[in-house]
Design a protein that fits this description.
Distance between the termini of chain A: 38 Å
Mean pLDDT of chain A: 87
Radius of gyration of chain A: 21 Å
Number of domains of chain B: 1
Helix content of chain B: over 70%
Number of helices of chain A: 23
Mean pLDDT of chain B: 90
Shape of chain B: globular
Number of helices of chain B: 20
Strand content of chain A: under 5%
Structural class of chain A: mainly alpha
Number of strands of chain A: 2
Largest sheet of chain B: 2 strands, antiparallel
Number of domains of chain A: 1
Strand order of the largest sheet of chain A: 1-2
Strand content of chain B: under 5%
Number of strands of chain B: 2
Structural class of chain B: mainly alpha
Strand order of the largest sheet of chain B: 1-2
Radius of gyration of chain B: 21 Å
Distance between the termini of chain B: 32 Å
Order of helices and strands of chain B: HHHEEHHHHHHHHHHHHHHHHH
Oligomer: heterodimer
Helix content of chain A: over 70%
């Protein structure tokens, strides 16, 4: 199994789930205890997940920390967990982000407190489960189970149009997922197993690959979300409570891109290759369209939500560039986006708790009232734009490099996305923090220590990845290479290129 | 003589026990005035009957009746259905002021009819079982005598039910004319070569009459009115038992007797399945009464379950059986919450009545949430496992497109199931708080159904194995 002494993946999946269910036993009135219990569980989960970072063997593409048990033998379904270089970082990210979500919700969730923290912990377990599952059935269970608490978080604790946003989120994601479910069953009929690794070795006829590619595309494209099916995202992000937005932005939408990497590419390599121009096209449209739409937003959260569409366009561009720079950049950018956009939503949440307004026009001159906060916001905004030295730069640079190699036009167009992002982010910053001081916000209190810690934790990663990306890219090299070998595209030049990129910084 | 007699009746011991005990309960009702006791007796009777079930194997009465794994599985469903319905009834009948003792014995007779249907290998016996089941349910649905809706339900159910029974008899006549027998196994042997016009007609008759029982569109018209008007405990009882019995009989006739004409009936059933899913799921969206909504939902679920029969083979049939078992738990579970909402001076049948339930009664709301998600088919609940098995069987049978249609309809269904969740969790309640009518038996029913829905969702293995073994 492993030499850690406990089944690490099961622990980090089920500790929050079981812990959350036990929290149901705490009396409703004891809100303080509920919060502390949630914090404790999420901290413990994160601590227990740390060996994944330290003990991970970066020299092999094989699955690590594997746990394999019979589950439903009648259908050949196993309880099969493991992580490789592609998934391991997401497990850690999920565990980290959940802690921050607990912290940021401390005072802003006032109704049905118990249910909120239980839902949050259930999501955490399910999210980690998605990244660790190596059995399609198990994967699907986690993938779908996550919808229930997320639906509740948006719908119960969200903003004024929360009910609409919640049902829209649920139906959009569900329709994609069920089509994938049929795809999974078809795969099972062909391969006779739900084991993802075994299925990845299958060579399917090209026509079937196309069908299945589209079935899986339906699930992943909605989740990412890619251009024409992105419309649930602004609503869900905007209406969700801060913690919900953070989870959505940081982890949930990453699952779509992760799905492309883990399933679409290795399972349907020929279809994926054939679809490259189309996917690159959609990605570029998302990058530019998302960016332009941001310029027109008057709602703070909506703006960041649309910037997610744009940034996730970068991620899919990188993945479907189908070269090492692109794919590694895509994965790193997923992490970056999780950290930066998560942080931006946290920032919005911090001022929203004080003003209860998301309208950009209600702010102005905030830098004089909350200087430390302004500093953090500046850092994350610049990281989002991709300033060299911060994490966003590494990811976007690799992606554009990969995109340029795959299709010159795609690379060029994607680069314009960065310019647009600088436009909307800096303009946003100007409107909120500079200009005339808006009287409505003249008397709001400064950041508390709890909020400071939340943001500082993410700021560390902004610099860490920005300055020494190899401590994260190092996890991916071998796994990505293996993946690309499977898709059979020139793998040789790649590692060298990445070393020069990161070494040159 | 003695041993000979015993071997003859051995296979039908459970049915005989049920018949005798139902009569006993009926008589005891005259002397026992505390109706809870009758309820307890009914449950004890179920215990006795289930004692005999594993001990009864083989054929009886010249192969008119067979106690096989297939029948046993369904009897298991019927008995669970009976127990849960009894648990639901105890307090509810008091609230509705309809505590008449025949109630429990009628439920037992109805269940007896279902058991006979599941084991009948002769069309005449099958018809007898069906009539016993149906007649008892007609009465039960009109059990709240002082409520006009209940009377209307009974009358409507009876008239349409009588029609469908007549049509079934036509079908049986046709088959008899073609083959000279009413024995399902003999029919298989007698019918060779292509399908004649007469046989097609017989198939159509069977589809119509069984379609009525299991509420397939377009023979579903009675369902919403009857489900709404009948006592809620009986609605729960009917939405599972007679439906499962209809499936049991339909599958035995089609998948055993007429298996050589699969191509002919498969096409009809595919069309009806799609129509049923469409009608059930789409009309459910605009319902404001939860009993009507669950009625349309139950129509839709028949549309899913029939996919198992369409797919055919051991895989398909066991998927269908498995689905009906899971459906029994989740549907009765949902009805338990509906019943709990009914208190002395509050009907609690409108969706709007569920506003703010999560705040006033978090546990009841949470349980309803589980059942709603299970009915939608979201993991990790039993509803997902049931659907998954069905879709798997469909894909296995080369009907991937049908599976796609079905999953799309289950997304549509998410909309109205989630609406209940929405009312409970996302809206604030009225000033006057909803008063629930909990009781120990109802609590037990909720406990059983919730645990089973979760267990079936996470550890379905033994149940799948059971359904497979039952097919043999």
């Amino acid at each position: 199994m492993n030499n850690i002494g406990y089944p690490i993946l099961s622990t980090v999946i089920f500790l929050p789930i079981v812990g959350g269910l036990f929290m149901l036993l705490i009396a409703r009135r004891q809100e303080g205890m509920i919060k502390w219990a949630a914090l404790l569980i999420s901290l413990l989960t994160f601590l227990l997940s740390l060996p994944l970072f330290t003990e991970f063997d970066k020299t092999t593409h094989k699955m690590q920390f594997v746990e394999q048990k019979q589950w439903i033998p009648e259908w050949g379904i196993q309880y099969y967990l493991g992580v490789d270089g592609i998934s391991v970082l997401f497990v850690l990210l999920s565990a980290l982000i959940t802690i921050l979500c607990v912290l940021i919700s401390w005072n802003s969730i006032k109704e049905k407190v118990k249910e909120f923290y239980v839902a949050l912990l259930l999501i955490e377990g399910a999210m980690i489960g998605v990244f660790c599952s190596l059995d399609f059935f198990l994967f699907y269970i986690f993938w779908e189970a996550m919808l229930i608490p997320m639906y509740l978080i948006i719908g119960v604790w969200g903003g004024p149009r929360r009910v609409y946003a919640a049902i829209k989120f649920f139906l959009y994601t569900l329709i994609g997922s069920v089509l994938m479910l049929v795809g999974i069953i078809v795969l099972y009929m062909k391969g006779g197993t739900f084991n993802i690794l075994e299925l990845s070795r299958l060579s399917l006829p090209i026509s079937l690959q196309y069908w299945l590619f589209w079935a899986f595309f339906a699930a992943f494209a909605v989740k990412v979300p890619m251009f024409p099916v992105h419309t649930w995202l602004p609503d869900a992000h905007t209406e969700a409570p801060t913690a919900g937005s953070v989870i959505l932005a940081a982890i949930l939408i990453k699952m779509g891109a992760y799905g492309f990497l883990r399933f679409s590419l290795p399972l349907f390599p020929d279809a994926a290759k054939a679809m490259t121009p189309f996917m690159l096209g959609l990605s570029v449209v998302a990058i530019i369209y998302g960016g332009i739409v941001c310029l027109a937003q008057t709602d703070l959260k909506r703006l960041i939500a649309y910037s997610s569409v744009s940034h996730m366009g970068f991620v899919t561009l990188g993945i479907f560039a189908l070269n090492a720079q692109g794919v590694e950049g895509g994965i790193l950018q997923m992490i970056n986006h999780g950290i930066v956009t998560g942080a931006l939503f946290l920032c919005v949440g911090i001022v929203y708790d004080r003003t209860h307004s998301r309208e950009i026009a209600d702010y102005g001159g905030l830098a004089t009232v909350m200087p430390v906060y302004a500093g953090f916001f500046m850092l994350f905004a610049l990281a989002s734009i991709g300033l060299p030295g911060l994490n966003g730069f590494i990811g976007e640079f690799l992606i554009i490099l990969g995109g340029f190699k795959a299709k010159k036009l795609a690379g060029v167009l994607a680069a314009t996305g960065i310019i647009i992002s600088a436009g909307y982010m800096l303009w946003l910053y100007q409107r909120i923090f500079f200009n005339e001081l808006n009287e409505k916000i003249a008397n709001i209190e400064a950041m508390t220590a709890r909020e400071f810690i939340t943001l500082a934790a993410l700021a560390v990663f902004v610099f860490w990845i920005g300055i020494y990306p190899n401590s994260f890219l190092g996890f991916m090299h071998v796994s990505v290479q293996h993946l690309l070998d499977r898709v059979s595209l020139g793998p040789t030049e790649t590692v060298v290129a990445i070393k020069t990129v990161s070494g040159g910084l | 003589m003695n041993t000979n007699f015993m071997t003859i009746i051995h296979p039908i011991l459970p049915e005989m026990a049920m018949a005798v005990l139902a009569c006993v309960v009926l008589i005891l009702e005259l002397v026992i005035h505390k109706k809870e006791t009758i309820g307890v007796l009914t449950i004890l009777s179920v215990a006795v009957v289930s004692y005999f079930i594993p001990r009864s194997y083989g054929e009886a009465f010249n192969a008119m009746f067979v106690a096989d794994g297939y029948g046993t599985f369904f009897k298991f469903i019927f008995l669970i259905n009976l127990i849960l319905a009894v648990l639901l009834s105890v307090r509810y009948l008091k609230i509705e002021r309809s505590e008449f003792g025949e109630y429990y014995s009628l439920m037992m007779f109805s269940t007896l009819g279902m058991m006979i249907m599941a084991s009948a290998t002769d069309l005449i016996l099958l018809y007898l079982g069906l009539e016993l089941m149906a007649l008892s349910t007609y009465i039960l649905s009109g059990f709240i005598r002082h409520d006009r809706r209940s009377n209307e339900a009974a009358l409507k159910y009876f008239l349409l039910g009588a029609f469908s029974s007549a049509i079934l008899l036509y079908g049986i006549t046709m088959i008899y004319a073609l083959t000279g027998t009413t024995n399902i196994i003999a029919i298989t042997k007698a019918l060779r070569g292509g399908a004649s016009a007469g046989l097609i007609l017989a198939i159509v008759f069977f589809v119509v009459s069984f379609g009525f029982k299991i509420a397939l569109a377009p023979f579903h018209m009675w369902t919403p009115d009857v489900y709404e008007g009948a006592p809620t405990s009986i609605t729960a009882f009917m939405s599972v038992g007679p439906k499962a019995a209809g499936f049991a009989a339909l599958a035995r006739v089609f998948a055993m007797g007429l298996v050589n004409f699969r191509a002919d009936w498969q096409l009809i059933l595919i069309a009806l399945s799609i129509l049923t899913m469409a009608v059930g799921n789409i009309i459910a969206i605009q319902q404001t009464n939860i009993k009507r909504m669950l009625a349309y939902s139950s129509i839709a679920h028949a549309g899913y379950a029939i996919i198992g029969l369409i797919a055919g083979g051991p895989e398909g049939i066991s998927a269908m059986m498995n689905y009906l078992l899971i459906y029994a738990f989740m549907n009765i579970g949902a009805f338990s919450v509906v019943i709990m909402m009914r208190s002395e001076d509050f009907r609690g049948e409108e969706l709007a009545d569920y506003k703010g339930l999560a705040k006033a009664h978090p546990l009841a709301a949470a349980l309803m949430l589980v059942f709603m998600f299970s009915l939608t088919g979201i993991p990790p609940t039993g509803g997902f496992i049931g659907k998954f098995y069905l879709f798997k069987a469909a894909v296995n049978a080369g009907l991937t497109w049908l599976a796609v249609v079905a999953v799309i309809f289950s997304v549509i269904s998410a909309y109205f199931y989630l609406r209940v969740v929405m009312y409970m969790y996302m809206y604030e309640g009225e000033d006057t708080e909803v008063v629930l009518a909990p009781s120990a038996p109802l609590g037990l029913a909720l406990l059983i159904t919730t645990i089973m829905v979760i267990v079936l969702g996470i550890f379905p293995s033994p149940f799948i194995a059971f359904a497979r073994m039952a097919i043999g």
